[in-house]
Design a protein that fits this description.
alpha+beta, two-stranded antiparallel ribbon
């Protein structure tokens, strides 16, 4: 898989979380999360100055190897921290990040 290491300034995102988290080794319907997010949830967000930069964010807990569960988010970038009922917000600090593209139609296998 092609990837790059890129330096980013702090960034803000708003979006939705995969309910219940993802269990390592099990098949999950991430495509449905993204489909609903892109077709319905974006409309509910309205015009928040979104930058048309989308990310799938995986957050691993310290006990990942014991519980084998992690959180997954479908997010769109915003110019500042924005709170809206029914949505999660994330602030990613400035720093180096591994960046790689994932094809939406083959999302589960790509991840």
């Amino acid at each position: 898989m092609k990837y790059e290491i890129k330096q980013y300034d702090k960034r803000y995102f708003i979006g939705v979380e995969y309910e219940g988290g993802l269990k390592i080794g099990e098949r999950h319907n991430i495509n449905d999360l993204w489909s609903t997010f892109l077709k319905e949830d974006i409309l509910l967000l309205g015009d928040l100055g979104m930058e048309s930069k989308y990310i799938g964010l995986e957050c691993y807990p310290p006990d990942l190897m014991d519980i084998k569960m992690f959180d997954y988010y479908a997010l769109v970038q915003t110019p500042e921290m924005i709170k809206k009922d029914g949505f999660v917000t994330k602030k990613l600090p400035a720093g180096e990040y591994i960046r790689f593209e994932v094809m939406f139609d083959n999302l589960h296998e790509e991840i």
